[in-house]
Amino acid sequence: MLRLLRNFWWRRQIIQFSEDHHFKNTRIIFSKSIYLFFLIKWITHYPGFHLFFKGYLAQLEPSWRNIFRYPWASEHYTILFWMLLILVAIAIFMRPSFWWATLVFWIDINFYYLIVPVKSGEEMVINLMLFANIFISMDMSNLAKPLKTLGYQINNFAVLLVKIQIGLIYFVSGWDKLMSVEWRSGDAIRQLFLLETYIHPAFLSYQPPEVLALLLAWATILFEIFFIVLVFLKPVKKWIIITGIIFHTFIATFLSLPFFAIAIITSYTIFLKDETAKKILDMMASIKQLTTSFMKAQ
Questions:
Q1: Between the CA atoms of 71, 74, 75 and 79, what dihedral angle is there, to the nearest 10 degrees?
Q2: pLDDT tens per residue, range 5-61
Q3: CB–CB of 23/155 below 8 Å?
Q4: Which of 52, 60, 149, 287 falls between 20 and 30 A from 229, CA-CA?
């Protein structure tokens, strides 16, 4: 009897994995969220764009991943910069598709090569998300049933891989901390308050008590190591996501690393229930309709 129940459960999972509605709205929210993050990040980076262009980039050869080095682009790199960002902005309002996702990923690669010497964690995270989004955004609804089923499986498998990858990012970070004497003793937390380059000025003169530092260090280690398991458990999934948002908001404020925190929080949209994602999309549609009606009335 138990074997029959197990077989039925696995059969139901496989069937669901081959259906479009399994992550349909979640995929839309995920795509729009990472496009929006990418757009905001590079708009805020624009003031220093010319420094990247005239520095490291000048040493590279022109290629498909470094179009800014072609002569025509070198002469008008500011115009090209904004043209590429306009395409990303358009993608936010378009229905997710394989071609739009591929285009945005290609733009991301070209921008990534601008800042290789000073790249940070959020660049790697957003590269991964945008690459996976190519397969997440594939639309197979107009194909014959066998290919349609295969397409849905690719969509849903890409979603699963993103979830696992986010969990692995946490796990590797947590395991590294667990192997560190400084983290196990809590000294790493106390040392963070000495990082004048990153720490928020409001915390410069503060040193947490040893007990508090120890608790914060182990809370961080345990959260990062067990995230990959707990986020897939329905009873605690919501609370793990909320904890993660608080955790990264604190990092963004305390260590003045906003973009990494926002990149991770943005990636959390992949964990949304499809029903929740649909409610968000419906709310966005209602706001758009109200805005349109207001503009017409004016």
A1: 130
A2: 445 444 455 555 566 556 788 888 999 999 999 998 888 877 766 666 555 555 666
A3: yes
A4: 149
Q: Is 63 helix (H, G, I), strand (E, B) or coil?
A: strand
Please give the single-letter amino acid code of residue 228.
I
Confidence of residue 293 (pLDDT cuts 50, 70, 90): confident
Q: At what angle do helices 234-254 and 258-267 cross, to 10 degrees?
A: 160
The Cβ of residue 276 has, within 10 Å, a number of other Cβ atoms equal to 15
CA-nearest of 110, 147, 150 to 130 is 110
H or E segment and range at residue 281: helix 274-297
Q: What is the pLDDT of residues 158-209, one digit of tens each?
A: 888 999 999 999 999 999 999 999 899 888 888 877 777 777 777 767 777 8
* CA atoms within 13 Å, Cβ hemisphere of 277: 20
Q: How far is CA 17 from CA 76, 231, 291, in A?
A: 47, 19, 37
Task: Provide the 8-state DSSP code for 137.
Answer: T
Residue for token digits 């029959």? 4
Q: Phi first, then psi: give them for residue 233, nearest 5 degrees.
A: -100, 115
The pTM (predicted TM-score) of the whole model is 0.82
